UniProtKB/TrEMBL annotation:
Gene Ontology cellular component terms for the protein in this record: Arp2/3 protein complex
Localization annotation: Cytoplasm, Cytoskeleton
Keywords carried by this UniProt record: Cytoplasm, Cytoskeleton
Keyword Cytoplasm part of the UniProt annotation: yes
Signal peptide: none
Function description: Functions as component of the Arp2/3 complex which is involved in regulation of actin polymerization and together with an activating nucleation-promoting factor (NPF) mediates the formation of branched actin networks. Arp2/3 complex plays a critical role in the control of cell morphogenesis via the modulation of cell polarity development.
Stated name of the protein: Actin-related protein 2/3 complex subunit 5
Claim: Cytoplasm is one of the keywords in the record: yes
Length: 138
């Protein structure tokens, strides 16, 4: 994530590509699941922790991109990267923090909406439908 944050202002698409590369969202990238019940629980906990860290990295980098640079950054991503980014955008919409005893969005929803809009302009409704109907978790 440090490399991506270093590039986010000067090369936002490179920063997004860096954090979207080799994410632990696909089972084949995670590895084989243990057979015993206790091992499975520990494995699933580790997988969820890895997904949480990956989501935090992707969303932090995305929200650090200047609003006017989002269209160009999204345009330079591959279709698979845009699909994956859309999944993280939807996850970002759902993330909440508590500030002064009030729930607040963790990530800048204006940036998330801008990226969502740009992906939709380039790819239509496909990424939205795949995000909603896929079993692939981020």
């Amino acid at each position: 994530m440090d490399a991506a944050m270093k590039d986010v202002k000067s090369k936002p698409s490179a920063a997004l590509k860096t954090v979207l590369d080799e994410l632990p969202v696909r089972t084949k990238k995670i590895g084989d699941q243990p057979k015993d019940k206790e091992g499975k629980k520990a494995f699933e906990k580790q997988v969820q922790e890895a997904r949480d860290v990956a989501a935090q990295c992707v969303l932090t980098v995305l929200c650090a991109v200047e609003s006017n640079k989002i269209p160009a950054a999204v345009k330079e991503l591959t279709d698979d990267e845009r699909d994956t980014l859309m999944k993280f955008i939807y996850r970002g919409f759902g993330e909440r923090s508590v500030v002064d005893d009030k729930p607040k969005a963790t990530y800048d929803c204006n940036i998330l909406l801008k990226a969502h809009e740009e992906i939709s302009k380039l790819m239509g409704n496909g990424p939205i439908i795949r995000t909603i109907h896929t079993r692939l978790e981020v």
